[in-house]
Amino acid sequence: MGMAFAFDWEIALITWLQSMLGIVGLVFANVFSLFGEEIVLVALLIFLYWCYDKELGRIITSNICIGLVFNTMLKNMVLRRRPYMDHEEIKCLRPIKQDRDIYDVKAQGFSFPSGHSTNSMVAYGTLAKEKQEKRYRIAGIVIPLLVGLARVVAGVHYPTDVLVGWLLGISVILLMGYLEKHASNRHVAHGQLLAVGCIGVFFCRSEDYYSSLGLAMGFFLADWFEERFVGFQNTRDIKTTIFRVMGGLAVYLGTNYLLKMPFAEAFLASGRMMALLIRLIRYMIASFLTFGIYPMSFKYYEKS
Q1: CB within 8 A of 163, min separation 6: which ones?
Q2: Omega before 159 cis (within 30°)?
Q3: H or E element, residue 73
Q4: For site-directed labelling of 247, which of 14, 66, 85, 88 has its Cα 20 to 30 A away?
Q5: What is the mean pLDDT of the chain?
Q6: How many angstroms separate the CA atoms of 72 and 104, rounded?
Q7: What is the pTM (predicted TM-score) of this model?
Q8: What gap in Å lies between CA 109 and CA 107, rounded to an integer?
Q9: Where are the alpha helices (DSSP H) in 154-297?
Q10: How far apart are the first and last CA of the chain?
Q11: Other beta carbons less than 10 A from residue 54's beta carbon
Q12: pLDDT tens across 224-265, in order?
């Protein structure tokens, strides 16, 4: 499943980096990959959105959702297999799904463009754009660079995957920034982008697309719901911040786990269309409950 194509210099660069760095490369790949992964980004977004700066958190989360959807759509159009799948001299130091077969393309996803590179560019690049401070500008450049390099060292992306991932991230930042300024109703604009993203249902068969689409649907619905019915306030109180973040992560992870329980693991991993749609619904519900419903509890437990 998928296609194998690469420049000779890409294969040579990956093998050289892995042989030169050795065990250091393994540590580097594992540490800096985290900055572009789901649980770290969810924790960061929860902190920004609920505690530090609600508007900034909303903008970054919206951008990441759109970046995720269009990145995974492109992956399913290009169908480029990961480097280690086709070149035995390249090692896989950090698989996407560590509990699944590393050669299972449906579970591990396609290679082009790099999702981690897109995610990190969107998250930290948007932070730099919105805050306009030197430390954030530095983070907006350095973190995506390190994440992209880590993905190459890990053997899961070609350098061109990373380059295009960065370009896609920059494009999402510019597009969403334009819509924030010029769209008469951001909810309608987000809905239109999601409608375009839903076209992927007709040709996408990798799990990451359905996870991303469900996450985006849930968040944009939660954004509308929160604005209309919740209206929580940020907090700088350390105890409240910890409680909000830990509670939010528990809701997100717990909901996802509970919604998997009625189904056999083999079915969920089968790649069948029904299993993929269940995955979409699971992520949509978890996202909506986390960002839309859970904040309703703030005004109650924080009074006690």
Answers
A1: 148
A2: no
A3: helix 54-78
A4: 66
A5: 91
A6: 16
A7: 0.91
A8: 6
A9: 159-182, 186-197, 207-225, 238-260, 265-268, 273-288
A10: 56
A11: 17
A12: 999 999 989 898 888 888 988 899 889 999 999 999 999 998
